[in-house]
Amino acid sequence: MSNLSSQGSRGYLSSAKIGRESVLEIRSPESARPVAPRTPEAPQVVQAFIYRHRPFFVLVGVLLAQLMLLSAQITRSRNESVAKVWAEAALSPFERSLRGLADVIGGVWHGLRDVTVAEQQNRELRAQLAAGETRIQQLSEESAENERLRTLLDYKARAPYSTVAAEVIGSSPGEGSSTVLIDKGSDYHFSADLAVITPDGAAGKLTAVFPHTAQVLLLTDAAAGAGGMLDKSRAQGVLKGLGRGTCRLDYLMNGEAVTAGDLVVTSGLDQVFPKGLPIGRVLKVSEGNIYKNIVVKPAVALDRLEEVLVVIPGASTPEEAKVTK
C-alpha cells in the first residue's frame, strides 16, 4: 500500500512538472518560433575537409617532393639542372628589373655628380673671370695713370719754369668749397700762394701748407681769384670763382668784343700764375651796366684732378722764354 502511495505521489509530481513546462511553453513567445539548426564555422569545415582527405594531400606532397628531387638531379644539354633553369626563369624578370633600377639609379647618381662638378667648375671659372676683369681694370688704370704721368713729365720737361709733381690724395667734402689735398708740403719747400697747374692749364693755388701735405684752392672756389685776359684781344680782367664749377671774368667793358668760345689765359698780374697759361673758354657773355657778364668754363677738369704740378718761383714765364729764345 505504501508502494501504491509512493507511486501515486511520483505520478502526481511528474504530471505537475509536465503541466508547468507546458504552461511555460505556452506563455513563452520564443516557444512558438522554430529553432534553426546550428551551422559549423568555416575553419571547422576546412579542418574537417582536410581531415577527411588527408591521404590525398599526403600523396600530393610526396609527389611534389619527388618532382623537386628529380628536377634537381636531371640535367640539360649544358649540364644545368632543371631546377636551376626553372629558378633562373622564375627569377630573371626580377633580376632584370633590379638591374634596370640599378642602372637608372647609377645614371641619376652620375648625372648629379656631373652637375655638381659642373657647378664647381662654373664657380671656379666665374672666380677666374672676376679676377681677370679686376686685373684688366687694374692694368687699364695703370695704363691711364702712366699716360697721364708721361704727359705731365713731358710738360714739366718743356716748361720754362721749375715745377714739382704731386698727387691729389683728397678733396673737400662741401659743395660750396672747391679744394683738394696733395701729397707734398713743406718737406718740398712749398709755401702758400704757389701756383698749381696741369698740362691743360691753371688749376688753383696753395692756401695751406703742412709738413707732408698741402691744400689747393681751385679756381672755381668762390674765394679764388686770378689775373686773366682774352687771348685774342688781350683785354685784361679779374677771374673769380662762381662755386658751381665755373668762373667769371670781371671788369671787361661792354665795348669789348667777346664771343662764346674765346680762350682766356693768365695775365701774370696776380704774381701767382705764370703769364699765358690757359684758364678756360668763354661759356656765355651778356651786356651789363658797365662791364660785361662773362662766364668761363675752366680748361682743366677740376673735379677729376689726380696729378698736378706746383710751380716753384724764380723761373721765367712762357712769354719771357719765347723772347729769350
Question: What would you note in describing this structure?
Answer:
The protein has 325 residues and is α+β, with helices and mostly antiparallel strands. It has two domains: 80-158; 163-314, Rod shape-determining protein MreC, domain 1 (Thrombin, subunit H, Beta Barrel), CATH 2.40.10.340. The chain is built from five helices and twelve strands. The strands form two sheets. It has a six-stranded antiparallel barrel. A hairpin with a 7-residue loop joins strand 1 and strand 2 (179-182). The longest helix has 77 residues, at 82-158. Mean pLDDT is 79; it is low at 1-32 and 315-325.
List the helices and strands and how they pair.
Layout: H1 2-27, H2 42-52, H3 54-73, H4 82-158, E1 163-171, E2 179-182, E3 195-198, E4 201-209, E5 214-218, E6 225-230, E7 236-241, E8 247-250, E9 263-266, E10 278-286, E11 293-298, E12 307-311, H5 318-324
Antiparallel strand pairs: 1-2, 1-12, 2-5, 3-4, 3-12, 4-5, 6-7, 6-9, 7-8, 8-11, 9-10, 10-11
Give me a quick take on this structure.
This protein is of the alpha+beta class and 325 residues long. It is built from five helices and twelve strands. Residues 1-32 and 315-325 have low confidence and may be disordered.
CATH class of the largest domain: Mainly Beta
Approximately what portion of the residues adopt beta-strand conformation?
A: 15-25%
Query: Low-confidence stretches at least 5 residues in length (pLDDT < 50)?
Result: 1-32, 315-325
Report, as a whole number of angstroms, the end-to-end distance. 191 Å
Number of beta-strand segments:
12
The computed structural class is alpha+beta
The number of helices is: 5
Under CATH, the homologous superfamily of the largest domain reads Rod shape-determining protein MreC, domain 1
Percentage of residues in helical conformation = 40-55%
Task: Indicate the radius of gyration in whole angstroms.
Answer: 60 Å
CATH topology of the largest domain: Thrombin, subunit H
Strand order, biggest sheet? 1-2-5-4-3-12
Our count of domains comes out at 2
* Main sheet record: 6 strands, antiparallel, barrel
Following the backbone from N to C, one meets helices and strands in this order, namely: HHHHEEEEEEEEEEEEH
In quaternary terms, these chains amount to single chain
Task: Estimate the mean pLDDT confidence.
Answer: 79
